[in-house]
Amino acid sequence: MRNEREILIDTLSRELAPVRPMPRLASIVSIWLVLAAALVLLLVLFAAPFRPFAVAHLADDPWFALEMICGGLAIGLLAIAGFRAAVPGELSPGILRAGSAMFALWVLVIASGWMNPALEPSMVGKRTHCHLESLAYGMPAIIAAAWIVRRLYVLKPLHFALPVCMAAGAMPAWFMQLACRYEPGHALAFHVLPGMVPAFLGVAIARAVPSLLQRGR
Amino acid sequence: MQGLSRGQLDEMRWSAAMRCVQRGDEAAYRHLLAELAQALERFLRSRLGNLDIVEDCVQEALIGIHHARHTWNPERPIRPWLFAIARHRAADVLRRLSAQRRAEESRLESALLGDGEIPEGAEAEVTEGWLMRLLTQEQREAIQLTRFEGLSVAEAARCANVSEAAMKVRVHRALRRLTQLLEEEAT
Description:
The two termini of chain A are about 30 Å apart. By secondary structure, chain A is an all-alpha fold. The longest helix of chain A is centred in the C-terminal third of the chain and has 25 residues, at about 185-210. Helices cover about 70% and strands about 0% of the residues of chain A. Chain B is an all-alpha fold. In chain B, helix 1 packs across helix 2 (about 25-50), helix 4 (about 80-110) packs antiparallel against helix 7 and helix 6 crosses helix 7 (about 165-185). The interface of A and B includes residues 8, 22 and 217 of A.
């Protein structure tokens, strides 16, 4: 008489179908980042153009360039950390820590502008609904990430959801630093903070309904 | 092959087999699963001892491997992938066990059982896994009495000279701690 384990092995073997190995994780993350950033950029520009001379300031003002580099790195590292958590054995606490630290540094660099702003604070480029844009424009990237991860095998949904939702939510905030008026308090209150709302929402959903991210389980 | 460790040999064999499995080779899959089941059982018993749920953990891990087989990248090592699935599936089993135990005790309380009935499937032999040694003395004793020796909570409480409520808390915390330790090992 066969034991349960033998019966299970027999069943799984008979159910075996060829599978196409998933693409390399680096490709998945790169495509997601590029498409998400492109969509956010299109949405931002569709609503209104960038602040005048915003891009030129990147070359002229090193502290502003540093601010943008920190933000860009934070988004990239958090995205990598999140998607790595969706593949068994690829979770990288080091990259997650680096992404979180870079995000904190980005916020600190913006906040340091209260004492020593990178650019002269002004109302130039002010967008009427920048807080709503920051809140909404990250949502498509979060939905796309959830769709992708259902095709992977995430063991810990929160380890995926938190960094990826933060990266997606930070993208509109990052673009708003070029598109909207420059002022540190305004950036934190109306760009970064609203950008984190979909992040918290994504995490709450992943915690409440992990099966949303775990197809067939 | 000379000079290669057991782990390296397993890595080579399992990687080659999984490539065949991804192409749909049933015979290779059957052989691989049988070998993995033994390896996973050794892996889990080294951590959890002779807990009666180890077989459940092994089977859950095999099912997880089946569902996740498309996520293994042939350019990456297979052992971290395999054992990550095994650890997390085992942690899921422990979490379910903890929840079942709480529900069971709540049913026993309301039915006013307390006659020392020994649950089914009691194990006689106690072999501690190294994760068990990371529990506190009280937690280890709670698991040993209720899972290895098969005593009811009431009997275990009497043995340990504590209240039933205290014994329930110890068992629950022990299972939760084992789950955490398994998951921390994966990171």
